[in-house]
Specification:
The protein has 380 residues and is an alpha/beta fold. The chain has one domain: Aldolase class I (TIM Barrel, Alpha-Beta Barrel). It is built from 17 helices and ten strands. The strands form two sheets. It has an eight-stranded parallel sheet. Strands 1-2 form a two-stranded antiparallel sheet. The longest helix is centred in the C-terminal third of the chain and has 21 residues. It starts with 6 loop residues before the first helix and ends in an 18-residue tail after the last helix. The model has no long low-confidence stretch (mean pLDDT 94).
């Protein structure tokens, strides 16, 4: 029996269990993958300040994110195709997050639909929105999220144009999987994955199929999706989404101080410093390097969160120390899901919280509110 001690253990098991095209979809960046790898490398380069002879009994990792109490300052990030890593993956991840006490964010490009996840959980979750050319569809999608009692809307701003990921092209990555000899051979070596998928609630994009005319088959669905990401997206659209939604709004994909200032003035409740996991502009700053100047500029006006490269409690602690009030984790929970299903997501969360708790103690910190830049020896 494999002993799971860290997120890397889950990653390796995910890679073993899932078809290559779907594993690579998670573990990939755009072009050279320079920004993808910088997200982790720049976090690793930060050094923590160890303190001794400090009373660190009765510690707590609890916090709040846009008024929601969380067991630790993180939410599961929106990740497309989660339901192809493990059958009904979005429902399982949402259940694990609910039981653990952190928010789950459902992607627009999920396999299980908003309604599927709402039926499979007992507490509100968050919904992530892409603004597409078909504004009527987007309006209906917002209303569906509201009807499902989603408690926050995460609006992604950095996917107007899709960055190229070489692995996806080489693997013929699509939903359902494109029939290629290499894919067929690979899937034959993953019989447990195949059996689970046979019993899955869905195997196509549940938020799209059945809700858009001309996007029923794999070819028409692919064409519709590829044509819908909207390069005309601007701040007027953000205002339109805010008015249509009427609830907690989080803006994801902020990397620049000037954009952060506009976002802070937009009436949103939080912003996420994010480069889309290194999947968009290759050569952009890592999220952790982009974070401090944005916190300095707008951190007193809006909650600033960060995602990108967080694979451990130490990574989370460093992000919090450099000013983030919350974090999002995407790949880490997907590695857990692809490795062990719902239990794997729970294990990923347990690992990160235990590491956060231990690291806080060794830095002389008892609760999240005490974390400051003073615990990092070489802050950016």
């Amino acid at each position: 029996m494999t002993v799971i001690t860290c997120i890397e253990d889950l990653r390796l098991l995910h890679k073993k269990n899932a078809p290559k095209a779907f594993y690579d979809y998670v573990d990939a960046g755009s072009y050279t993958e320079g920004t993808y790898h910088a997200n982790s490398a720049d976090l690793a380069a930060l050094k923590l300040r160890q303190r001794v002879a400090v009373n660190v009994d009765n510690r707590s990792t609890e916090s709040t994110m846009v008024g929601h109490k969380v067991a630790m300052p993180t939410a599961l990030a929106p990740v497309g195709l989660t339901g192809m890593q493990w059958a009904d993956g979005e429902i399982l991840a949402a259940r694990a997050a609910e039981k653990f006490g952190v928010p789950f964010t459902l992607s627009t490009m999920s396999i299980c639909s908003i309604e599927d996840v709402a039926a499979g959980t007992t507490k509100p979750f968050w919904f992530q929105l892409y603004v597409m050319r078909d504004r009527d569809y987007i309006k209906r999608l917002i209303h569906r999220a509201r009807a499902a009692k989603c408690s926050a809307l995460v609006l992604t701003l950095d996917l107007q144009i899709i960055g190229q990921r070489h692995k996806d092209l080489k693997n013929g990555m699509s939903v359902p999987p494109k029939i290629m000899l290499s894919n067929l051979v690979d899937m034959m070596t993953k019989p447990a994955w195949g059996l689970r998928m046979l019993g899955a609630k869905r195997r196509v994009f549940g938020n799209i199929v059945g809700h858009v005319k001309g996007a029923e088959g794999i070819v028409s669905l692919s064409k519709w999706t590829a044509s819908q990401f909207d390069p005309t997206l601007d701040w007027k659209d953000v205002e339109w989404v805010k008015n249509e939604w009427g609830g907690k709004l989080i803006l994801k994909g902020i990397q620049d101080v000037e954009d952060a200032k506009i976002a802070a003035a937009s009436g949103a409740d939080a912003i996420v410093v994010s480069n889309h996991g290194g999947r968009q502009l290759d050569g952009a700053l890592s999220s952790i390097r982009a974070l401090p100047p944005i916190v300095d500029a707008v951190g007193d006006r809006i909650e600033v969160w960060m995602d990108g490269g967080i694979r451990s409690g130490q990574d989370m602690l460093k992000a919090l120390a450099l000013g983030a009030k919350g974090t999002l984790i995407g790949r880490a929970f997907n590695f857990g899901l692809g490795a062990m299903g719902e239990a794997g997501v729970t294990r990923a969360l347990e690992i990160i919280r235990a590491e956060l708790d231990t690291s806080m103690a060794l830095c002389g910190v008892k609760n999240v509110g005490e974390i400051s830049r003073e615990i990092v020896l070489n802050p950016y």
